[in-house]
Write a structure and sequence with these properties.
Length: 204
């Protein structure tokens, strides 16, 4: 499905605030893709689709995940909003004709991240956090700079800040967030996680 059709589809299924966020993520992702040498069109599509399941009710998310045999963890049962990423990848494929595996993975991993993300996955993960409409998270100015200088370090800082917030608010921590942070901290210590030209080309 081309971008023009995608925009129209998203506008129909999203409220105004979510739609504005979606556009902002898509354009931020395109900018990051241009800087880091990723496919700009894929970044736009992934950005447009990343929240395609977000406006469903919690009950609808749970029902659809069960229908599509998407595994639901105990944390996700308590926080059904977390399901919108993996469910969104399924809907992107089935309803919005997205067939590119990297785009679908980027949608699926954009909330918690995952170890070994591709460059496109990192771009969507970061773009969702730093798009211009965001203004409440700590360290945004630093992360926005890192996003263009060293995307792996931007991923690490986002995960650290997310973990700090969840601990301070005594909220559930999705295991995927913890695993992803540990993975990228290890990569950073080994000197392979610093957004080098090699890493930008391989996506690792």
């Amino acid at each position: 499905m081309d971008l023009k059709k995608l925009r129209k589809k998203m506008k129909k299924v999203m409220d105004d605030e979510r739609y504005e966020h979606t556009l902002s993520v898509a354009y931020t992702a395109a900018n990051l893709a241009a800087v880091h040498g990723a496919d700009v069109e894929k970044a736009l599509r992934a950005g447009m689709l990343h929240d395609c399941a977000k406006c469903l009710t919690d009950s609808e998310k749970l029902t659809l995940c069960e229908k599509f045999h998407i595994n639901i963890s105990a944390v996700e049962y308590r926080n059904p909003s977390l399901l919108h990423a993996e469910l969104g990848a399924k809907l992107a494929k089935d309803l919005y004709e997205e067939t590119d595996k990297d785009v679908l993975n980027a949608i699926s991993s954009h909330t918690t991240g995952r170890p070994g993300m591709s460059l496109l996955e990192k771009i969507i993960f970061v773009a969702d956090y730093i798009e211009p409409g965001r203004n409440k998270a700590p360290n945004l100015k630093q992360i926005r700079k890192l996003a263009y200088d060293d995307i792996d370090l931007a991923v690490i800082q986002i995960l650290r800040d997310t973990m700090d917030y969840l601990v301070k608010t005594k909220s559930d921590i999705h295991p995927g967030t913890q695993w992803t942070l540990e993975y990228y901290l290890k990569q950073s210590k080994e000197g392979r996680g610093h957004g080098s030209k090699r890493n930008r080309e391989t996506g690792n």
